[in-house]
């Protein structure tokens, strides 16, 4: 049984990307689908779909090099990390993204900052 489905999702994506797999099978939840939608919008994955109750993500590559270089989980079930709008900073000078869970749903740190929303700091990806 997985206790942190987001950490499991991010780890599977990172490991599959490092091993140059084309797709990765993921457990499904509303939060996982929201994370996948953000990763698709930001170009970290090409596409995702739901097949047989599992999410399948097609990973993005740049000249056979993975687009995802590092995934850093910030908030965990044992230690939640919350940030205000002022505390949301760019990841690697804008080359990466942060994912924040706000009252209006999951969004990138830049989007949360522009909407002046704080929330739970889920992860950084670059």
TrEMBL record:
<comment type="similarity">
    <text>Belongs to the universal ribosomal protein uS8 family.</text>
</comment>
<dbReference type="GO" id="GO:0019843">
    <property type="term" value="F:rRNA binding"/>
</dbReference>
<dbReference type="GO" id="GO:0005840">
    <property type="term" value="C:ribosome"/>
</dbReference>
<protein>
    <recommendedName>
        <fullName>Small ribosomal subunit protein uS8</fullName>
    </recommendedName>
</protein>
<dbReference type="InterPro" id="IPR000630">
    <property type="entry name" value="Ribosomal_uS8"/>
</dbReference>
<dbReference type="InterPro" id="IPR047863">
    <property type="entry name" value="Ribosomal_uS8_CS"/>
</dbReference>
<comment type="subunit">
    <text>Part of the 30S ribosomal subunit. Contacts proteins S5 and S12.</text>
</comment>
<comment type="function">
    <text>One of the primary rRNA binding proteins, it binds directly to 16S rRNA central domain where it helps coordinate assembly of the platform of the 30S subunit.</text>
</comment>
<dbReference type="GO" id="GO:0003735">
    <property type="term" value="F:structural constituent of ribosome"/>
</dbReference>
<dbReference type="GO" id="GO:0006412">
    <property type="term" value="P:translation"/>
</dbReference>
<dbReference type="GO" id="GO:0005737">
    <property type="term" value="C:cytoplasm"/>
</dbReference>
<keyword id="KW-0694">RNA-binding</keyword>
<keyword id="KW-0687">Ribonucleoprotein</keyword>
<keyword id="KW-0689">Ribosomal protein</keyword>
<keyword id="KW-0699">rRNA-binding</keyword>
<dbReference type="InterPro" id="IPR035987">
    <property type="entry name" value="Ribosomal_uS8_sf"/>
</dbReference>
<dbReference type="GO" id="GO:1990904">
    <property type="term" value="C:ribonucleoprotein complex"/>
</dbReference>
<dbReference type="Pfam" id="PF00410">
    <property type="entry name" value="Ribosomal_S8"/>
</dbReference>
